Amino acid sequence: MLKDIFMGLSQNQFLNNAAKKYGLKMGAQSVVAGTNIPEVIKSIKELNAQGISCTVDNLGEFVFKEEEATAAKEQILKVIEAINENQVDAHISLKPTQVGLDIDYSFCLNNVREIVHQASRYDMFVNIDMEDFKHLELTFNLLDELSMEFDNVGTVIQAYFHKASEYLERYKNFRIRIVKGAYKESAEIAYQDKKDIDANFIKLIEWHLLNGKYTSIATHDHRIINHVKEFVKENNIPNDQFEFQMLYGFRKDLQLSLASEGYHFCTYVPFGNDWYGYFMRRLAERPQNLNLVAKQVFNKKTNTIIGVAAGAFILGRMTKSNKKKSR
C-alpha cells in the first residue's frame, strides 16, 4: 500500500516541479549528492578516498521539450569534463527520457551519441539506465545502434521482468548492471512477489558472472551479497570481473566494508535539482529506506514510516497553498 503511494507520488509532475523550488528537503540531501557539479565532484572525491568508484546520474524527469533535453545533454557533457579535469574515478549513468526519448527517437539517439562520444575520448564508460517497460525496447535499440560505433556503453537488466534472462543473454557481451527493478509493472510482464524477484535476481547474477563480460551487482541486501561472495569463490571468478553497487547514502558501513575487503565497489551518485522522482522511488523500494530517511528528518519520537509519508503529503499541500496565494 505505502509502496504504491510513493510510486504514485514519484510520477506526479506537479509535485516534481514544486520540489525543485524547495531544494533538497525532507531527507533527500542524505541520498542525493548535491545540486550542482562542484558538490557532486566533492562527494566523488570523498568516496574515491575510501576506495570506492562512482557512477554519476544527473537527475531529470518529465522531459517533453527539445530545449529541456538539450540542456540535460549539455549538463551531462559538463559532468564528463569535470570528471576528467578532476581526475576522479567515476563514469556516467543516464536515463534516455531525460535526453529526449519521449520526444523523438532520432533526436534522443543523437544526444546520447554525443555523450558517449565525449566520454570515449577519456576512456569513460556510459551506462544507459533502464526505466519502465514502455521504454525498454527503445532503450535496447539505442544500445544496439551505439554499440556499432562505441565500446564504452552498457545498460541495465531488471530482474523483476519475466523475460529478464532473455534480455541478459541478448547482451551478455556488454558490461551490465543487474538490478531488481524500481518501477511499478503489471503481473503480466513482471514478478510481483519479493521472493520471486530475489530468486530471479540471483539467477541472473550467477549466469552473467559465468557467461558475461562484466557484472555490476546492484543491491543493498547483505544476504545476496554474501551469496555472491561464496559463488565467486566456488567458481574461481576473479574480482576484476564484477563489482558491487549501492546507492549513495545507503548502507555506508557495508559499502566501506566491501571496498576494504578488496572487492570492486561502485556507488551510484545522483545529483541535481530534479531529485523528487528519484527520491520517491527510493522510499517506495524498501521499508529500510523509509526508516533511514525518517531518522534523518524526524526526531526519535516521530521516527515512523507514517512520518515520512506525511512529509510527502505536506510537500504537496505546501505547494498547492503557495499556488493559490500566487493567484
From TrEMBL:
Instruction: Indicate the segments forming the Proline dehydrogenase domain, all copies.
Output: 41-291
Q: What domain of life?
A: Bacteria
- The answer to whether UniProt assigns keyword Flavoprotein to this entry is yes
Residues bound to substrate: 95, 281-282
Residue positions annotated to bind FAD are 130, 158, 180-182, 194, 219-220
Q: How is the cofactor bound?
A: Binds 1 FAD per subunit.
- List the molecular function annotations (GO) for this entry: nucleotide binding; proline dehydrogenase activity
List keywords of the entry alphabetically: FAD, Flavoprotein, Nucleotide-binding, Oxidoreductase, Proline metabolism
Q: Under which pathway is this protein filed?
A: Amino-acid degradation; L-proline degradation into L-glutamate; L-glutamate from L-proline: step 1/2
What does the record give as EC number? 1.5.5.2
Needed cofactors: FAD
GO terms (BP aspect): L-proline catabolic process to L-glutamate
* Reaction catalysed by this enzyme: L-proline + a quinone = (S)-1-pyrroline-5-carboxylate + a quinol + H(+)
Q: What is this protein called?
A: proline dehydrogenase
